[in-house]
């Protein structure tokens, strides 16, 4: 059993899909460096990218909509400086309204995809995007059509591997029949487990790697929030999420006691136990799992990668089991935005 709270050891690796890249078993979510979670110290965020790479993190996650392209621009110098060492993942499909960034639409049609890929290539300043995800499913476009158009990008060398985000098990099967899907990226954590119904079994069956986003519950599982409404800045996206607000946040904070107790036993933090739980799902479900915790701070990337070395016992897993079913409030205000909304 590891009791290491922080550390400088490098992490293990995992493969994304049968023909995909081998990456560090924990990636880095870059979204918060430019978007969604309040003000950022750009110098510290840049140093965090470098520190992550030293620790064996090679999968870096962004999307075209994070800050209207700003996040891709922000990580571009780092990606270019380490082009052969890092796997850069970006996404298309969510359309934001510049007048009101909280209003969002979804587009999966081929002309829109074309426009998006060119924009991401330009902002990242690369010839090829390593992993290109469809960010959300537009139910007005058959998924076979979208993945067919994405496969053309692979044939043209604009993209290396394909991924999908927030699709159901059946949608993943339909997509994978058109072109191999390397990774499915959806929310998966101690307190968001709806993906275990259809997406996880389908990913296992097809040999698709699972990339859990928000594995720290958008920070909630670190124990940082007791009264989220007060703790979040005005522009923080989490203010729109039912489980973060008012009475729900207080009720959900009380659910974290088992995480805290297990953390004390390991000399670890609650966030590390939450990450150890996600990593453990690889052996529980029999598939590759590469979570992408998001942070803008070096000390936290050290803490998060050290969590890959924490082994949870069966008793500890059992103690964490009830949390997800007791959480109050949805993970999005509009669950139609998630795979669970279509199951
Ligand atoms: N496909 C999708 O639809 C989708 C949706 C959401 C996110 N994502 C991707 O997934 C990545 C991760 O998800 P996320 O950022 O939403 O949630 P997360 O990784 O669960 O949590 C991130 C939050 O936790 C804080 N944090 C990180 N490490 C910490 C630590 N050791 N101790 C205390 N606090 C810590 C971060 O703050 P600091 O930054 O200040 O450390 C941030 O507020 C994103 O960056 C993005 O790339 C994808």
Automatic annotation (TrEMBL):
Superkingdom field: Bacteria
EC category name: oxidoreductase
Domain NADP-dependent oxidoreductase: 27-322
Designated name of the protein: Aldo/keto reductase
EC number: 1.1.1.-
Pfam families linked to this entry: Aldo_ket_red (PF00248)
PANTHER family tied to this protein: AFLATOXIN B1 ALDEHYDE REDUCTASE, ALDO-KETO REDUCTASE
Species the sequence originates in: Streptomyces desertarenae
GO molecular function, one term: oxidoreductase activity
UniProt keyword terms in alphabetical order: Oxidoreductase
